[in-house]
Design brief:
mainly alpha
């Protein structure tokens, strides 16, 4: 049974792994704190809604109106053959909608898990310091490794939930906008599923592997966001540049690319868990 030690005494570590009661209790506690923080919740929900619902709706409606004009032919002719060839085999009225909704908006789905995980991870320890709850957290009878894992899961679970719910909403919007013009569903397909369920969690893990460590070293959430942004922003540009390309390869290659991201991300998380100690966090308070 897990017991709470008195302040100033050494905590009895929890050894039950990621599924332990202690980790689940910390995650539940932190998620309640996240729900009460408007500064965290508003950007965490507003940006995905704009990127995954409002923007696809506006762009898809514009593409629908332009689908019977000559603009689509000029646009396709200006694209690389690797992208234009699969689209050009479709009926003319389907080409622009399929291109925009099926391919060009793909970068949005790697930005969202990265952005949400960065926002939550910045609050992981820096937020505790701002709320003056860090001392209570550090005296919990939980191993340092388990405390790190709990903070990681507090960012990972909402990031994946927001990404998957957002993708479900995007699927509804995209197929509703293209209804009556495109024969069948624009999304999802096998490659989309790989991006959403394999690559997106890897990207979220990568962002968390960086930002949880940054948050542990910062005194305020604003400082963590500023410092972490210098690292996360290049990852956003990489995600934007590569996500459309993922939809142009075959499924095994997309899985392999996701596997490389997972290896890098898990390496950062494992190293962060090994190097994380209460003394380092307390020293930066």
């Amino acid at each position: 049974m897990t017991t709470i030690s008195a302040p100033g005494t050494e905590a009895t570590p929890s050894r039950r792994g990621p599924g332990s009661v202690a980790i689940r209790a910390i995650v539940a506690r932190d998620l309640r704190a996240v729900r009460r923080s408007k500064a965290v919740v508003i950007p965490m929900l507003t940006v995905p809604v704009l990127l995954m619902v409002i923007l696809p709706l506006v762009v898809g409606y514009a593409a629908r109106r332009a689908s019977r004009t000559g603009a689509r032919i000029e646009f396709l002719d200006s694209l690389p053959s690797q992208l234009s060839d699969p689209i050009s085999t479709l009926p003319p009225e389907e080409q622009l909608l399929t291109l925009v909704l099926g391919f060009l908006l793909a970068p949005l789905f790697l930005i969202v898990p990265l952005m949400v995980s960065a926002v939550l991870a910045a609050d992981a320890f820096a937020g505790e310091k701002e709320r003056r709850t860090m001392e209570t957290l550090l005296h919990l009878p939980v191993a340092d490794r388990d405390l790190f894992i709990a903070k990681f899961l507090t960012g990972f679970l909402p990031a994946i939930t927001v990404s998957w719910v957002g993708f479900a909403m995007f699927t509804v919007v995209a197929n509703a906008v293209s209804w009556g013009i495109v024969d069948g569903l624009v999304v999802p397909n096998a490659l989309w599923l790989v991006v959403i369920f394999w690559v997106a969690p890897a990207v979220a893990t990568l962002g968390l592997g960086i930002m949880v460590r940054v948050s542990a070293r910062c005194r305020t959430t604003q400082e963590a966001n500023q410092l972490g942004g210098a690292v996360i922003l290049p990852l956003v540009f990489v995600a934007v540049g590569q996500s459309t390309g993922l939809l142009l390869v075959d499924v095994p290659l997309a899985m392999a690319i996701g596997g490389v991201i997972w290896i890098i991300a898990l390496t950062l998380v494992v190293r962060g868990a090994r190097r994380f100690t209460r003394d380092r966090v307390a020293g930066n308070s």
